[in-house]
Automatic annotation (TrEMBL):
GO terms for cellular component: nuclear pore. InterPro entries: Nucleoporin_Nup88 (IPR019321), NUP88/NUP82 (IPR037700), WD40_repeat_dom_sf (IPR036322). It comes from the Eukaryota. Keywords: mRNA transport, Nuclear pore complex, Nucleus, Protein transport, Translocation, Transport. One of its GO terms (molecular function) is structural constituent of nuclear pore. Residues 7-17, 30-39 have a biased composition (Pro residues). One of its GO terms (biological process) is ribosomal small subunit export from nucleus. Residues 1-86 are annotated as: Disordered. It comes from Ananas comosus. The keyword Protein transport applies. Its main location: nucleus. This is Nuclear pore complex protein NUP88. The keyword Protein transport applies. It is found in: Nucleus, Nuclear pore complex.
Length: 838
């Protein structure tokens, strides 16, 4: 663990990139005289200043700033909005850090790298790498004025659009749509989103959370305080949402609880079956609801996963004898076939298309059910003594498990796992409102989503959990509509000193280890690690999670958050750098060695400890009995000794007794010490010889390791050379003319097969027919030698051809020649088409 400070990025931005970033940055070696920059910066026709790399905390963006407090209170109040609040965003593909400056009203764009420390620097510090930023950095200024305090910024998957959000406004900056460039200051185009919905501070409507959809670069999810979840498509319409879901979590007849239950946050699902089409919504009382399925129009998904879900619905839904199950299964199949037409197309070859694009579709007679509240079940005694209100929410998919973490204002973390699969469910009582354009295409829709609350669902699912989840009744209950249960894993108490209902806790996942997440609160940052998952670790004993404080503020009087920005930076070595921006605009960097996390200690009393084994190998130079010293002589507490004389019988007897004790204790001890010291030289020589042998063996091992290290370095150098050679060959391959050649479609393949058949069979027959016709034409067109004489004589066995027949034959030959020319032209066209297809 280490703390450090920051620098800034280059002046000109790289071109737009894809979302395939991997989430890690390349680490640079320890600096020699002038370390090269590992990040390739784009070329600029103007001359750029040379880059200077400094530690992130010492970058002028942070180091030159004086502590501010003008808007820190507003930032603290708004940090809960927009998903916990974060004034920093990380672009893993280009290694760029975006930081919002609340004073300059701009976004700083910093280019970062990780550099290994040299031996001298690493020995004097607790960390092995340093996060560096480039100077100069870019300053992105929006072309229009921002109306209020920015409490949250977020970058989309391809790094082209940046959200600037507050509680009552939403703006999007297009990073690569630059209006003007003045040195390192860039003016970018900024647009307003949902301005008719988020109209200002006096409207009473606030944005609780704003988040990009993970499967689309242009879709934005917005949860507002009026219990409406909206999905905007920024590529088509900035004001009108593509999808609207009006959430009704209250059971009919229980409206008296509506004031105390309000939405807090939401999270998109992961990559597990129907979870990728789900949206999980948390309410202030801790209840969790699910919307499924929710898919952005035009988003891309893996076709193999869609096919797996499609086959699962057919196998478990249509074969049931329950009409409700069959009805819900048919709705799910209809939705899959309409949203992903390629899945139902049996003519599409398996593996020919890897991605499936979601088409615009919504049932005309059914709306989504608001599945929930999700009931909670447990194998043991359940503890529901949770005070306060829910303030934070995190979903994470780990292996076979889907984990839900709820943060409470009392400083407790409730960790649950889904005990069953998420399934789609519709309600035919509320048909949706569809938005159709003049061409008949669906542009958007709005739905009223009512909760499918069931009074006895918790008891049923508790019984199913006790009886096992492999019964057919459990499979039927999934498709019948009950919400999937939550299995309680743990309830973690962070023991915050002054926890109250106004305390805010923010949760962030770990990009490297799925079983790990971070909680940011007023007292610092805590890392929570899960050591047991019900499905991934089936058959093992449950273990409680561990909590490791990684940063403490020392301020126990306030429970308000001290960070305005939080990002995690992963490198290729499995290490993690946590970058935090405080409310006073200071930068904090904490290094986490991800694969060396302290695990819970499990003591085994039957085995010897490491200290005992180490002590057994240490030789005993001096006897423990000698080191303990001589035995202490205990004199009797008697006052009559002073009255005794040495000449008396009693005095001589007492003196003889004490002389004997002195001889037994001190003289014999001195004799043992003399013997021990006399023989100690030879013993020490034996011990030193053994130590010299061990030292010689260690030196030989070090020499072997140094030799192997040189070989490993040579192999690494050769691997880099081979890598460079492969890159050169790849660049040369990219220049080949056929690199952009696309595979033929089915119609093109059929047309090519017809052309091949014409070229192989019918073309040869046509050539032979033409040659025969040409031969006949030449034979009949030649004047007869007999016909040139004035007298016409008939040949033996043949009849003479008259002039009329000859003229008819000539006209026929002329027609054949015309047909021949036309066929020749068609043959040339066919041959040219074949050459172009080849």
């Amino acid at each position: 663990m280490a703390i450090m400070k920051a620098p800034s990025p280059p002046s000109s931005p790289p071109p737009p990139h894809g979302s395939d970033g991997g989430g890690s940055i390349r680490r640079s070696p320890a600096p020699t005289p002038a370390p090269p920059a590992p990040l390739s910066l784009p070329s600029d026709p103007q001359k750029k200043p040379s880059l200077e790399w400094v530690p992130l905390q010492k970058h002028p963006v942070f180091a030159s700033r004086s502590p501010i407090s003008s808007d820190s209170g507003e930032l603290r109040r708004g940090s809960a909005a927009s998903g916990g609040g974060s004034s920093a965003a990380w672009d893993a593909a280009l290694s760029r850090l975006y930081v919002w400056d609340s004073v300059s009203r701009c976004v700083h764009r910093l280019a970062l790298r990780l550099r290994d420390l040299d031996a001298d620097s690493a020995s004097s510090t607790d960390f092995s790498v340093v996060v560096e930023a480039a100077i100069p950095s870019e300053k992105l200024i929006p072309d229009t004025q921002i109306p209020s305090i920015v409490s949250h910024i977020s970058l989309n998957a391809d790094g082209s659009s940046l959200i600037l959000a507050g509680s009552d406004f939403l703006r999007v900056i297009y990073i690569y749509e630059r209006i003007s460039v003045n040195g390192n200051t860039v003016t970018c185009r900024m647009v307003s989103v949902a301005s008719q919905i988020l109209t200002g501070e006096n409207s009473g409507l606030q944005a609780l959370q704003i988040s990009w959809h993970p499967f689309s670069n242009s879709h934005l999810g917005v949860l507002t305080s009026d219990s409406v979840f909206r999905l905007f498509d920024l590529s088509s319409d900035l004001e009108r949402p593509e999808q609207e879901y009006y959430l009704q979590p209250i059971k009919p007849g229980s409206c008296h609880n509506a004031v105390s239950i309000c939405p807090v946050a939401f999270s998109y699902g992961g990559h597990h079956l129907w979870d990728r089409f789900s949206v999980f919504i948390l309410f202030s009382d801790g209840s969790i609801y699910v919307l499924c399925p929710v898919v952005p129009f035009g988003s891309l998904f893996n076709r193999r996963y869609i096919q797996e879900i499609y086959e699962d619905v057919i196998a478990f839904g249509l074969t049931s004898l329950n009409p409700k199950i069959v009805s819900n299964s048919r709705l799910a199949i209809s939705w899959l076939e309409a949203t992903f037409p390629d899945v139902a197309d049996q003519s599409t070859e398996v593996g020919s298309v890897s991605l499936a694009r979601a088409h615009a579709y919504a049932p005309v007679d059914a709306s989504l059910s608001f599945q929930g509240p999700l009931c909670k079940v447990s194998h043991g005694e359940e503890n529901n003594n949770i005070e306060g209100k829910a303030v934070g929410f995190l979903y994470n998919s780990v292996g076979k498990d889907s984990i839900i973490v709820t943060a409470w204002s009392s400083g407790q973390l409730q960790i649950d796992a889904f005990a069953d699969e998420i399934q789609p469910h519709w309600n035919t009582s509320f048909p949706p409102r569809l938005d159709i354009d003049r061409h008949g295409d669906l542009r958007g829709f709005a739905m009223i989503c009512e909760s499918n609350f069931q009074d006895n669902s918790a008891s049923k699912l508790q019984n199913q959990l006790e009886m096992g989840s492999n019964s057919s009744n459990n499979v039927d209950s999934v498709w019948l509509g009950p919400s999937p249960p939550l299995l309680r894993l743990a309830l973690v108490d962070l023991a915050l000193p002054n926890a109250n209902p106004s305390c805010m806790l923010s949760l962030f996942p770990d990009p490297l280890v799925g079983e790990r997440f971070y909680c940011v609160h007023g007292g610092g940052i805590d890392m929570v690690s899960l050591h047991f998952l019900p499905f991934s670790d089936a058959g093992t004993n449950p273990k409680p999670p561990s909590v490791h404080p990684i940063l403490a503020t020392g301020n126990e009087e306030s429970c308000s958050p001290f960070l305005s920005g939080f990002v995690t930076i992963a490198d290729a070595y499995g290490h993690l750098q946590i970058v935090g921006i405080t409310l006073s605009y200071e930068c904090i960097v904490v290094e986490m060695k991800g694969w060396k996390e302290p695990m819970p200690i499990n003591y085994e009393f039957d085995s010897k400890s490491a200290n005992d084994e180490e002590a057994a190998t240490i030789p005993e130079f001096i006897s423990k009995e000698l080191l303990a010293g001589p035995k202490t002589i205990i004199l009797p507490a008697s006052a009559s000794l002073r009255s005794l004389t040495a000449d008396s019988i009693e005095g001589r007897s007492t003196l003889h007794h004490y002389i004997k004790l002195f001889h037994e204790n001190y003289v014999e001890y001195a004799h043992k010490v003399y013997i021990e010291l006399k023989e100690h030289a030879d013993y020490l020589k034996t011990v030193i010889d053994a130590q010299q042998k061990r030292l010689h063996a260690v030196k030989q091992s070090l020499a072997r390791y140094e030799t192997k290290e040189q070989g490993i370095n040579d192999r690494i150098d050769r691997a880099f050379k081979v890598y460079e050679l492969l890159e050169m060959r790849l660049e040369s391959f990219k220049t080949l003319p056929a690199r952009n050649k696309k595979p033929l479609s089915r119609a093109e393949r059929e047309f090519k097969a017809q052309l091949d058949r014409f070229g192989n069979i019918e073309l040869d027959a046509l050539h032979s027919a033409i040659e025969a016709l040409n031969a006949r034409m030449k034979r009949y067109s030649q004047p007869s030698l007999v016909g040139s004489s004035p007298q016409q004589t008939s040949l033996r066995g043949r009849n003479y051809i008259s002039d009329n027949q000859m003229s008819l034959l000539k006209s026929s030959l002329e027609k054949l020649s015309i047909i021949n020319e036309q066929n020749t032209q068609k043959l040339k066209l066919i041959e040219n088409e074949l050459k172009s297809q080849e």
